[in-house]
């Protein structure tokens, strides 16, 4: 079984203490009760960042973090055959749950994974999970996998697909400080894999690590045609010198739910005369670096100002006024938007 982070950290520490590998003796747990006691000890007295998990393998909701495990022969674990999505919980409401669920199932279809439940049942499970967690602010992350069964490449030996979900107790707020980014040298995913939200995130991880190693927050991928694409787990948008809001076409990148919502809300600034237009288009690196303002767009941000790219200041190098006006539009939608966007969690 895949174990929790705390257990892994403790085991890593134990291994590090062994000076001579030949002297290391692996403990054999004689019973499940002994193992459970060990897992309970690992979490004893610690904050529980994952207050609730659902597993279709267990057939219910788990409230003990030490039991939040998935089978190691699940094909999502050893073959990466799985998809996921994330929605946020803010002030006791789940934001854009239906939009995220629809994308989730589109990703599953591309990955050739059939859900064990209908969309309405998945929705009900997630709502009940959020309620059981008692969390008013955090993230709701969920996965569909080919399921457990064996260690082969094909999922033919998996009796059924599996659905997992977890509530993460996570604090986030509207981002107001600008960040520095770089152009990623890590090859970006091909369109098939970039447009489905699958668990194969190694390119994304390496891209983020590359940026951090260079003192930047994150990176931006540029496609083979020289057009900007996306960040490691966020979309990118710019305000041009002509006061146009432009996001790259979504043909070969992930269609971010927050980015799509931004395209729906931003015309309000056009009506107010603050923006000239809102559109999707191809943008070269030169055009993007010449923008007046630039930003990342993602669920928990909802907008993160970019003030420097590859050591070149964006605009005047400060957080842009229009960037924050767009951020305000999204944040207001998250905290007080229409019922179509926010679902109240029925806490017990």
UniProtKB/TrEMBL annotation:
Name the cofactor(s).
pyridoxal 5'-phosphate
GO BP term, pick one: folic acid biosynthetic process
- What Enzyme Commission number does this protein have? 4.1.3.38
Instruction: Please state the pathway this protein functions in, per its UniProt record.
Output: Cofactor biosynthesis; tetrahydrofolate biosynthesis; 4-aminobenzoate from chorismate: step 2/2
Stored PANTHER family: AMINO-ACID AMINOTRANSFERASE, OS01G0238500 PROTEIN
Its family remark reads: Belongs to the class-IV pyridoxal-phosphate-dependent aminotransferase family.
The name under which this protein is listed is aminodeoxychorismate lyase
């Amino acid at each position: 079984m895949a174990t929790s982070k705390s257990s892994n950290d403790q085991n890593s520490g134990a291994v590090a203490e062994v000076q001579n590998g030949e002297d290391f003796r692996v403990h054999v747990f004689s019973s499940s009760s002994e193992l459970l006691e060990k897992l309970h000890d690992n979490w004893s007295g610690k904050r529980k960042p994952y207050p609730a998990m659902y597993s279709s393998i267990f057939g219910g909701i788990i409230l003990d973090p030490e039991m939040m495990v998935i089978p190691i022969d699940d094909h999502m674990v050893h073959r990466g055959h799985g998809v996921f999505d994330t929605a946020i919980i803010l002030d006791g409401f789940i934001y854009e749950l239906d939009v995220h669920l629809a994308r989730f199932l589109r990703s599953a279809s591309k990955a050739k994974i059939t859900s064990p439940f209908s969309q309405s049942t998945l929705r009900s499970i997630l709502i009940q999970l959020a309620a059981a967690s008692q969390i008013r602010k955090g993230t709701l992350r969920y996965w569909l996998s080919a399921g457990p069964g064996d260690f082969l490449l094909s999922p033919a030996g998996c009796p059924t697909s599996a659905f997992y979900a977890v509530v993460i107790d996570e604090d986030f707020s509207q981002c107001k400080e600008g960040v520095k980014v770089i152009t990623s040298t890590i090859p970006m995913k091909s369109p098939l894999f970039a447009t489905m939200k699958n668990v194969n995130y190694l390119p994304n991880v390496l891209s983020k690590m590359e940026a951090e190693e260079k003192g930047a927050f994150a990176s931006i991928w540029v496609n083979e045609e020289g057009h900007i694409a996306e960040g490691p787990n966020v979309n990118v948008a710019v305000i041009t010198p002509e006061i146009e809001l432009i996001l790259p076409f979504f043909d070969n990148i992930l269609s971010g739910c927050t980015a799509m919502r931004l395209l729906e809300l931003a015309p309000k600034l056009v009506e107010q005369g603050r923006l000239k237009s809102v559109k999707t288009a191809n943008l070269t690196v030169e055009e993007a670096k010449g923008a007046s303002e630039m930003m990342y767009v993602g669920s928990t941000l909802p907008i993160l100002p970019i003030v420097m790219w590859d050591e070149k200041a964006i605009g005047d190098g400060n957080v842009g006024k229009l960037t924050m006006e767009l951020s305000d539009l999204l944040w207001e939608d998250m905290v007080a938007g229409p019922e179509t966007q926010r679902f109240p969690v029925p806490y017990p």
